[in-house]
Write a structure and sequence with these properties.
Layout lengths: L1 E4 L2 H11 L19 H9 L2 E8 L2 E10 L4 E8 L8 H10 L2
Antiparallel strand pairs: 1-2, 2-3, 3-4
Length: 100
């Protein structure tokens, strides 16, 4: 089920879990711990990023952050929990967010 997400703790949990996929791809000096801080997330939301999440059995397993910029909408974030990858969650969220 895809729905609008406002729980900052749950959003951060998914983002920081999913960021493990970047280890070894992005140089270590470009990865911070945590990957996204609460203040960074609050700043993104204040700038107009809306998060849509995908749940499985009541747990948030993936999310996308969309920012409306007038004539275009930008996908600012796209993350799926490590244990939930390769099950179509990202595709489902992309379809949902593209329809907006």
């Amino acid at each position: 089920m895809n729905r609008r997400c406002t729980d900052l703790s749950a959003i951060l949990s998914v983002i920081n879990d999913a960021a493990d996929a970047y280890r070894g791809v992005i140089p270590d000096d470009c990865l911070t711990e945590p990957y996204m801080s609460a203040s960074h997330l609050r700043d993104d939301i204040a700038s107009g990023v809306e998060f849509w999440g995908s749940e499985h059995e009541g747990d948030l397993v993936g999310l996308m952050g969309i920012q409306d910029k007038g004539e275009v909408s930008l996908i600012r974030h796209a993350y799926v929990r490590t244990a939930s990858r390769n099950h179509g969650i990202g595709s489902s969220l992309l379809s949902r967010c593209s329809a907006s």
